[in-house]
Amino acid sequence: MMPLALLHQSPSRPISPVWSSRRERSKGSHGNEFTFGRERLPRFRGVCLFIALLSVSPAVASAARLTPEAINAWDKYLEWADKKVEREITDGTRFLIQDYLSSQEKGNVLRRLKAGEVVAQRMKGVIPSGADFDIHDAAIHHWWGSILVPQVRLEDLLPFLQDYDHHAGRFLEVEKSRLLSKDGENYKFSFRLKRSKAVVTVYYNTEQECAYRIHNSHHASSRSRATKIAELENPGTPGERELPPGEDRGFLWRLVSWWRFQQTDDGVIVECESASLSRGIPFLISMVPGLRGYLESVPRESLENTLTSIRHHAPAWKKP
Fold it and tell me: pTM of the prediction?
């Protein structure tokens, strides 16, 4: 799962040339232009050029720093998220996230899953009502997604996911993978990740741990957490090195995922809920109409890629 992988924190001084948005007020206009100096550009070209400027500007591409305040806010949010997941998977009558949707929303999700689609939505309802919560100099990205893996049994799908030595080549963003240790249903493993969006590509060395729970013959769950995330400088060269955690470009500082698996007559419904911590969205970027949503699409796309990889590879996988 991927955080906001294009974000570069801007210092307080403005970037030149200055971008501004211009929303046409004439009848029939939809605000699909950006202004660069005095030249108006279509939204797509404007977005691409703006991202290119961000990727090469020394003022924007400087390192970010993970602050103690951001860590404390993340820890608090994670505590709420863990409690919410535990309540839901031990409810007794409901198990999947979609079970907690309205009947109309759940029906729509099931229809899309049976059609072979990936469902991905922003997660809501984690922060308790009335709670005082704010996070500075960082951003939390929390999404959930679901897919139906047809013609697969739960007892076959779980070993596929636990085959960490061979995740590379099956999952789009995993370049290298290795199982480090196994203790019952607890796994520790390492991934080298490559994540790209438009003109920006980021490499990481990560170490993660995942604990599985078998609830009954038709339900299972797991929780995975990255214990190490190190962005790589000069990847693939003799000068490759890991940047100090919290002193990198800030695309990915924390990552936790919760998984739910339910056996059905049509196959296994897989749900993944992913939360990540990255640097915050600079004010300059947030003011450009359309750009905030474009940049925040990255975690969703990573989630969709992961689920699609499972649907594509799991049915043909055979246990060694």
Answer: 0.80
